[in-house]
Input
Amino acid sequence: MVSLRSPSAIPVVGVLVDGRTYVHLLYLLIAIPLGAVYSSLFSFGFAFGIAFSVVLVGLVILLATLVAARLAAGVERWLANRLLGTDLTRYDDLADDPPGALAGVRKYVEAASTWRAVGFISLKFFVTVFAIIPLFALANGLSLLSAPIRYPYVATFGESNGEPITWAIGTLPESLLAVSVGFVGVLVALHVTNLVAYASRQMAIALLGEPAAAEGGATGDDPETTEEGATGDEPTASSPSSGFAPADADESESEFVPADAVEPESDGDSDRDEIGS
Output
């Protein structure tokens, strides 16, 4: 039987038909606005919190920033589970609710998960920067792919030193060349998308939570051990305490006895036989 190879497994171009690629692309599209929000919010929180830490308001701002980092980490963990293929649960390292407001603040500051969240939010800025690259390449590549139905037109690729970078496409050969360049650009953009998504996934695994499978395996029973324990105490046919003997044992007990081994009858029985005769 001949097994057909999945199109997504084809080297280089299989990325075009792999559904995970477009899920990763969605993750990067969401990461850009979230990264902008994180950058502005947490930069303000830590900067003003440290600047005014000599007074009470600075400490309040710092605490609010740490709590916001934990909330943002929860959102990022949910996105990673939905779009990056992870299965993470939040860290269970917060102490039980201690009495007193100061002790309640202390449990958040001492929890390692709080600082892991801060680390992830800080690295998210670099994810946002690298996410712009494949999205920019993809947008320009798709524009070039439509050149045969749009020419003559001028493709614009941004600016350099205040001057726009353009490509005037006015003939059919130029439009076909633009299609080739656009196709390569789309392939490169999708591969970079998967690369950035992979880096984000590794960051999430390291900083956002524990794998759910690890928690289940720690408390689960071994099915083989359970099965042996359930059947080990059952009586078997060869067990002497089972309360019955097997049929083979009955047959082995009834042995053949030869005729000459039978004891002769008593004298009284012989006399009665003679009188009767």
